[in-house]
Amino acid sequence: xxxxxxxxxxxxxxxxxxxxxxxxxxNSAFQYFMWYRQYSRKAPELLMYTYxxxxxxxxxxxxxxxKSSKYISLFIxxxxxxxxxxxxxxxRQGGKLIFGQGTELSVKP
Amino acid sequence: xxxVTQTPKFRVLKTGQSMTLLCAQDMNHEYMYWxxxxxxxxxxxxxxxxxxxTTAKGEVPDGYNVSRLKKQNFLLGLESAAxxxxxxxxxxxxxxxxxxxxxxxxxxxxxxxx
Lengths: 109, 114
Hints:
Chain A is mainly beta. Chain A is 0% helix and 59% strand.
């Protein structure tokens, strides 16, 4: 079993939709959870991070961790065509990051 | 500040040829990483360095070697390229390995091995 699993999609939604992106992880000791966004043929960039359990909100984006089920989510409200990108979840293991496979999101006008 | 830069941006190799990818950062970061990205596979760690003169293996190190002779540079070498090494290679650096370990990525190198 991979340490981080992410549905690769692709996911296509209409503009204005609520988007839910999800990952599962295997080790309950993980405490730092990140979401990176990668536009086509560009470098990944840190979008959001959360520590331990709970929610974190930043504008239209909400990151959520459910440690009891080992599940992390990224919600995008009022999605825009500019949100079209690949979203990668990541978990810190020691001094390294473990990335999910990435979910390709397309928001159609 | 240029951030993280990678040289070259594109390269085509024949099977068995060798090459070196150069990563440079001007943020005085201690930690540097090399990843490869393949469709549906996310980012997989090849090798990393926790400081000048140190290197360590990541998830997929076979067929690659690295060196960190200067703090600002991290080199990735392919001694005998294979078609399975066709990929996009990203270098990243971070100030700390603790906390959420924000990593800053370079623009990538697209490598094709024929």
